[in-house]
């Protein structure tokens, strides 16, 4: 039983290096239930590495990562069981090209979670309907637009009923006109209470949808707080410089 008030995800002084390069430096973040945490920062700041560590795709060097109070970085933790509780969507859609949309979505529920085919397909079709993709259930990925493929990737992550959803630059590979349809899905998930961590270059969207924003710079959480504070009254000069460049590029407007 998870104690009341326990964050769904907690990072405690997490450090990660690749060789001599220290990529994450004592990262500490709490992600409460039913909240959205946005990670912002320049390319190379450590956002994607943090996401990969949170899903145990990368092993941390020091610190701890807790999921519902359980130390999932403990060597005794069942990593496969942990990953079954976390949904992940990356900027590359990673759909199986030889499988239909429906088969892509139902593969993990059937093979990993032991759900029967009929039940898995019924739930998948319900999710596809919700995201406006019901007509694409029998299509193959190469027949879909980039935005449709990314929405299918989100449905695939949701089909396992995750406790936590990690979204890593999910619009980075999309043409600008397709970004809005994917972000609309994330807005919908927020209204339904999904706990999410997302890394994004869409500052206007982060400002709109996030409950807390973490600005990463050179592997450090340099600034952390509600979006109105981080975007409206940043305390660190480095944050202010970053946001000035974003404003100059016209990327702080809502999507």
From TrEMBL:
Keywords: Amino-acid transport, ATP-binding, Cell membrane, Membrane, Nucleotide-binding, Transport. Residues 9-243 form the ABC transporter domain. GO terms for molecular function: ATP binding. It is a peripheral membrane protein. InterPro entries: AAA+_ATPase (IPR003593), ABC_ATPase_HisP-typ (IPR030679), ABC_transporter-like_ATP-bd (IPR003439), ABC_transporter-like_CS (IPR017871), MetN_ABC_transporter-like (IPR050086), P-loop_NTPase (IPR027417). Belongs to the ABC transporter superfamily. It is found in: Cell membrane. It comes from Kitasatospora kazusensis. This is Amino acid ABC transporter ATP-binding protein. It comes from the Bacteria. It holds the Pfam family ABC_tran.
């Amino acid at each position: 039983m998870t104690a009341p008030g326990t964050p769904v995800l907690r990072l405690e002084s997490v450090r990660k290096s690749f060789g001599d390069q220290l990529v994450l430096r004592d990262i500490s973040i709490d992600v409460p239930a039913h909240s959205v945490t946005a990670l912002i920062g320049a390319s190379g700041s450590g956002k994607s590495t943090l996401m990969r560590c949170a899903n145990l795709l990368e092993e941390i060097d020091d610190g701890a990562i807790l999921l519902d109070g359980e130390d999932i970085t403990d060597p005794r933790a069942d990593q496969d069981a942990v990953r079954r509780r976390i949904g992940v969507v990356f900027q590359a859609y990673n759909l199986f090209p030889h499988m239909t949309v429906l088969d892509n979505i139902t593969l993990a529920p059937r093979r990993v979670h032991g759900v029967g085919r009929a039940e898995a397909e019924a739930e998948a079709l319900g999710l596809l309907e919700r995201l406006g993709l019901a007509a694409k259930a029998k299509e193959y990925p190469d027949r879909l637009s980039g935005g449709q493929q990314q929405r299918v990737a989100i449905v695939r992550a949701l089909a396992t009923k995750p406790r936590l959803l990690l979204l890593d630059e999910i619009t980075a590979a999309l043409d600008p006109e397709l970004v809005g349809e994917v972000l609309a899905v994330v807005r919908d998930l927020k209204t339904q209470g999904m706990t999410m961590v997302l890394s994004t270059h869409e500052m206007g969207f982060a400002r709109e949808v996030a409950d807390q924003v973490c600005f990463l710079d050179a592997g450090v959480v340099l600034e952390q707080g509600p979006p109105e504070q981080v975007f409206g009254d940043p305390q660190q000069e480095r944050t202010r410089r970053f946001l000035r460049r974003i404003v100059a590029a016209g990327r702080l407007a809502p999507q």
